[in-house]
Design goal:
By secondary structure, this protein is mainly alpha-helical. It has 6 helices and 4 strands.
């Protein structure tokens, strides 16, 4: 009886590391190892809070169009609010204290795959960040927002 080939190597070009259990990349290239049911519940529950729903509604009201599509001259309705810095890789505080951008489903998927390579794109500014940039960017953002409020 024929069998399906099993892909045990990372999908990143030229990488020979074994792939993780939950996707086709090794941990070094953004692969995910198994997460406990409790961790998954916590992750999903963050998106069910009233605070997140309000934040999401405010963001989509301020920027109803996909910021990535706009940089390419396309007009597309945004239906996702993206954390520029993926909060699960930074810390739980980064869930609410982050840079946000409005994206369509397709652009959000592309950006998520880029995050696996360690690049975080903020489309409205055209800047690309790494996880090490989070603290500096957020401190500068807080100073700017404080200046605007005063």
């Amino acid at each position: 009886m024929p069998t399906l080939p099993t892909n045990t190597k990372c999908s990143s070009l030229g990488c020979k590391n074994p792939r993780s259990k939950l996707n086709s990349y090794c941990v070094e290239h953004g692969g995910l190892n198994t997460i406990s049911t409790q961790e998954r519940k916590e992750f999903v529950s963050m998106y069910q809070t009233n605070q997140w729903r309000t934040l999401r509604q405010v963001q989509l009201s301020k920027q109803p169009l996909c910021e990535s599509c706009l940089t390419h001259g396309k007009v597309t309705q945004a239906n996702h609010v993206d954390h520029v810095f993926p909060w699960a890789k930074i810390n739980k505080q980064a869930f609410y204290h982050n840079l946000f951008q409005s994206l369509c489903h397709e652009c959000h998927s592309v950006k998520t795959s880029e995050e696996r390579q360690g690049t975080y794109t903020h489309f409205s500014t055209g800047k690309q960040y790494t996880p090490n940039d989070y603290r500096t960017v957020m401190m500068n953002n807080d100073k700017t927002n404080t200046t605007l409020i005063n």
